[in-house]
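Q: Protein A?
A:
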Amino acid sequence: MLVAAEAGWADEGSKSGANSASDVTERDDTVSAQVTARVVGHRVEDLSQRDARTQVFANPDGSWTNESTDAVRFVKDHGDYVPIEDLGTLESAGSTVTGSGTELTVADGTENPGSGPGETSVALATLTKPGQKNDQTLQLGWDGALPEPTVQDNMATYSDEVTVPVETPEGSDETETRGEGEAQAEDSVEAEPSEAEQAVESVPADVVVEPTVSGFKHEVLLNEAPDGDVVLRFPLGLSKGLKVGLDQATGDIRVVDAAGKVVFFAAAPKAWDEKVDKASGLPAAQVDVDTSLVEDDGVQVLVLRVGHEWLASKEREYPVTVDPSWTSGVSDSWVQRDATGSMAGSEELRVGTFNSGALASRSFLKFSSKALAGKKITKAELRLYNH
């Protein structure tokens, strides 16, 4: 997404590649950019005002153009902001995918349990935010081994012999589940069985990892109804100085640095089935996932629990998908009347309504306005790009 005072992106080219004065597209300071723009007859970037998301151009008529994006386009290299390489796609497992200020690698199936953040885990995905001094890294583990994935359409899918644990009360009789909206008598609630009284089984699943512009989304697809709660454990590996926390009010997961600044973020995990609302095109049956953070031998573990009652409902249409997505450098979000948590990092920007206003959505985009302070704005444009 781009907000600009004038049309157009920066011309590809540099001072070193210029063959004549008319080829110059950038200068090191404000005065040089203004003078050069008047001489060559086209806009010239003032490099002293460039940052990770912003470019400022001097125009031949004496005006200025500020172009700001909500995604990182430049990284600092030896004191200068240089363009990020073209955003990469996942071509093979184990290779590095370049994002907007991030680098991502996913498991290739050769890792042994114990090579990941926990004693029995492998690294499912590793997201790195390169820095001038130190890189910041989030490693998402998967308990147990993973097979070699199938890589197609920018996604890595792990299927062969992948299972997820299911917790069932040991020795309990089969009970009838209720569908959504059906009443349940209050006196039918029983005490939660202790860990010793629970039997752990498993159910087949697919694990999918897909790079996004500034992170990745990972989904676990349950292909059949389990006999109990599905419990997913993701050991987390964090680089020095980072710590993870769970917002108890919203369910959002934040990884912050020593100053409390958010470095990596995941919106509250959700689960949904195959049913689609015809009016909106969105999942018709979606629920919040019970989320917690526990410590296991000094390693923080993200635990997601999807309840048997919802999974076994006669209204379920399999497969059922469990997320969340992780991102870095969040600068946009949306709100909706039935969405209680943050949608920062979502691939969508929802606006308007699909049901005559009963469910309205609004989107928020953040752009740098540092270069606009004290300036008279003569024109503004907003451009949206669908990646």
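Q: Protein B?
A:
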Amino acid sequence: MTREEIEAFLAIARFGSLSEAARQINISQPALGKRLISLEDELGRKLVDRKRGVRQAKLTESGHAFVPFAEKFIDTIDNMKSMKERPDGETLRIASSDGPNLHVLNDAYTEFKSRRPDVFLRIQTHSYRECYRRVADRKLDAALVGINYYYKSVIAQPAYREDMVLICRTDSDYPDSLDLRDLSVSNCIYSPYSSEFIVWFDSWFRMQGDPLVECDLVEQTMRLMKDLGKDVWTIVPASSANVILEDPLFETRNVRNEMPRRTIHLIKNIDQQSGALALFEEILAEKLQGNDRIKSLI
């Protein structure tokens, strides 16, 4: 069992497509298939249900069960590599989902490193649930999440709030101002961005059925928007919308109905504190207050 085989499996689990998984880890699709077959042979179990001519690849029951073990395998190797490569000293481990990491937190990360170059900064991208689990297990010093899971050992404080924005393609037939009742959920690429958004989306659209795709990654959502036809639409946080709208293929629409706001919380272990973490929180507050796309709550 090798790191390359595990990474191939996790890419398939994350992107749901052999071709996209291969592209994301920069190998050919046949090479990806060989890695997967080698891993399945070693485990003696089929992990991915794949059919010739079908773009999507679905995990089997064994595949779903293997995901957390595969993630721990990669974490262990990364931690050992980090310990070997860096000198003894303080480490700060921060995580969030891809949207906040890419579109909100980068300035805080950069400023932190300029003030504390001696601290090894490890930035990770995880689901909100995984962020909570790792903070509770002290594998992360802090994380920024949109959903509360209420672990006894984890404290959460609101960090910032932002509007949600409807995005469609410029070649769509949607009017400049629209009512949500005129949208079909079957054309929606949905992401569970926050507790408020999940409740709101379910109340508006779940009675219609399932969305076209449910996707946890902002960048993957935009790629799907390009590939799935002119009628697709999605709703994203304002911080991500500003970046997405730089692409001429996308534009926004005015929604006449009330839309929720997303609240992101800073979470940390109740017993976890360090000078590096305290400084990061101070810098984060400064950067959030200077960001006009969001409302700082710190």
